[in-house]
Design brief:
By secondary structure, this protein is of the alpha/beta class. The chain contains 16 helices and 27 strands. The strands form 6 sheets. Strands 1, 2, 3, 4, 5, 13, 14 and 15 form an 8-stranded mixed beta sheet that branches. The chain has a 5-stranded antiparallel beta sheet with strand order 18-21-26-23-24, with no helix packed on it.
Length: 601
Amino acid sequence: MIQRRLQSLLCTCGLAASALIAAPALAATWLIQDVRVFDGEKMQEHRSVLVDGARIADDNFHGKAPAGATVIDGKGRTLLPGLIDAHVHAFRYFDLPLYFGVTTQIDMFTGVQAMQDVTAKMARGDNAGQADMYSAGTLATAPGGHGTEYGMVIPTLSKPEEAQAWVDARVAEGSYFIKIVMEQGHGFKSLDIATVKALIEAAHKRGKLAVVHISNLADARAALEAGADGLVHLFVGQSISKEDLDSFTQLAKIKKAFVIPTFSVMESIAGVRAADIIGDASFSSLLDKAQKQQLGAPYGANAKPELLAAPQAVTAALSKAGVPVLAGTDAGNSGTQYGISLHHELQALTQAGLTPLQALASATSAPAQAFKLPQRGRIVKGYKADLLLVDGDPSADITATRRIVDVWKDGVSVAPLRKQQMAAVAIEALPSAGQALPADGRISLFSKDQMGSPFGAGWMPSHDAFLGGKSSVDIKLVDNASGAAAQVNANVAAGFAYPWAGLAFMPGRQPMQAANLSSAKVLKFRVRGDGQQYSVAVMSGENRIPASLPFQAGTEWREVAMALADFKGVDTSTISMIGFNAGPKTGSYRFEIADVRLLAQ
């Protein structure tokens, strides 16, 4: 259930984009007066909370507001600790969670550099403009196991004797805890239980928590028996027997483990859309088009809500038995989105049997305690001033968490950033004719000196090496009867799950930035080559796995025409790349391409 889009993880555009966020104002002194306070465990009426700089100065303030303090009326409102999403894959949109009051994310698998960058910013106290992150970094999986299919070269292991060295390497990289994968089927290989147990013991030896990804009851039991501190998923199913339910619940309680059900992604697998948040216009006004696309596109093609019966029954039983249940979304996957999905998760947990207060704790104090997160998850003197102010009483109506008045991160109001995001989304929604196409449609302005283009970042080599693959490509400009052509000499090598090498056109102002090409209906180009089969790959929106159509490059020049509508799932208003690729079959390739056009008909 790790996000299929993780293959774009090492693209620097994610962190670069977050760096462009307008710098928030400096932390100041705030007094939220006469407000209902959920302190992370219980609700307190008629409290006043004083924030001084980045910390909570007093969680039960009495007296006159300090000189210079900004006073906020809390009547009819509830103040909560900043929310914590206990299961995400954070590789982009680092600011987005803040807009929805999620001030901390617990990451279950991301790039080491991304993890280290955010950790360094947190250590400097320089992370006010995005959510904090505590990450496992690289997950523990078998060669060919779940987590290796995204093309990133990651260290794997296959026997217990390798466990301690593997864990020590992750600790040296900065992993906050250790994430272990037990996943069989769908072509994946899984760690055996002896290796899982060795990894858990190795993590504990270094003072680190060990959590386990599972997708069925048998593996869930095995992980708990092996000493896992927590399970980071439950499992879908139409039913679970009373005997299995009671036995599993008792095991989790005896082992003092916590469980993160991740209903948001289980619903996506079951084909159930998060209609409540998708249909909330005030909430979705913070999501741009691509972000909305991801949220509204579950994995399952057909809705099968009956598959949620088993995890709902298990969650209810765990909560009743006192087993800590944490709110986590698995954001980064299709059918989910950072920040906003946690509010849906809270509702899903109440539908599974938690009270609203228990659900609020599952996204605040419970994950802070389970993962030993410092000074967060509670409204207590001296804790971080990560706060969420909402209208209404979420202990009576859990959806009140969505009526956001303000969010503070390290004592800084996020309101300016929220307004900035809403404005950007509103501008994006304005009617647009899209990118104007050249009169003749030609986007390949090739000459003997350069590969020019009429718009966008233009033409560039494309291959899998930046994702850890071993393919390579050499582009040369050569003459042909109608002018210059690009000669593509590709070597497609094993080393990436879907190896490729070729030539790509980037229509956005920057590489991999989306452009509105909705006025284009047909892609035409001339090609010749070595007789082998190639493909045109089109990437759009949040889909980091491109849609592809094949073409043959024979020894004589021929014209190829492809309707953009035939590229399944492509939104022509958000195209970020058009590639002409060799692969995935390994070997040497050569083709020439010229006169590439995007035509309105």
